């Protein structure tokens, strides 16, 4: 029997423009040292942004709000992975490798999605993480997600 991977890629979004809409997609092309092809942050410092499904559910439950994870404006939603204090770690998403650069701090736009959301996201990396693409390739919904170092 095959071992179950730690996590899974649940959703993928591309941002058309700075502050622009987030478009859901079933797959995306990650390019080493550049980011996600077609994303507004392509070739920027924060090439890919990632949030954890379980942490998002915890935050919205704390607020008593039903807010879709797309409101976070991240590129990838993963399940089964804790992003807290993960700076420097390599996250494997399908065949790709993302080096976590740091925490993504929540902005005032979170309160537009639900009053109080920005404040509850400040603890324990609630806003997720940002990463640089080290190993490129295509990712797709349902891809396994795990830490390279265990």
Topology, pairings included?
Blueprint: E1 7-15, E2 22-25, E3 27-31, E4 35-36, E5 48-52, H1 53-63, E6 76-79, E7 90-93, E8 96-103, H2 109-113, H3 117-121, E9 129-135, E10 137-140, E11 144-147
Parallel strand pairs: 5-6
Antiparallel strand pairs: 1-2, 1-6, 1-11, 3-4, 3-10, 5-9, 7-8, 7-11, 8-9
Notes on the protein architecture:
The chain is mainly beta and 150 residues long. Helices cover 14% and strands 37% of the residues. It has a single domain, classed as M1 Pyruvate Kinase, Domain 3 (Beta Barrel), CATH 2.40.33.20. Strands 1-6-5-9-8-7-11 form a 7-stranded mixed beta barrel. The longest helix is centred in the middle third of the chain and has 11 residues, at 53-63.
Based on the model shown, name its key terms:
150 residues, mainly beta, M1 Pyruvate Kinase, Domain 3, three-stranded antiparallel beta sheet, globular
């Amino acid at each position: 029997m095959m071992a179950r991977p730690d996590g899974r890629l649940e959703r993928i979004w591309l941002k058309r423009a700075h502050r622009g809409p987030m478009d859901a997609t079933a797959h995306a092309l990650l390019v080493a040292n550049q980011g996600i092809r077609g994303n507004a942050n392509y070739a920027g410092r924060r090439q890919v942004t990632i949030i954890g499904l379980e942490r998002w559910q915890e935050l919205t439950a704390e607020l008593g709000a039903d807010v879709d994870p797309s409101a976070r404006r991240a590129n990838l939603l993963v399940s089964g992975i804790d992003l807290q204090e993960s700076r420097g770690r390599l996250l494997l998403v399908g065949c790709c490798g993302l080096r976590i650069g740091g925490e993504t701090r929540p902005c005032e736009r979170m309160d537009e999605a639900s009053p109080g959301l920005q404040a509850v996201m400040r603890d324990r990396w609630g806003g997720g993480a940002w990463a640089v693409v080290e190993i490129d390739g295509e990712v797709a919904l349902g891809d396994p997600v795990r830490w390279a170092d265990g």
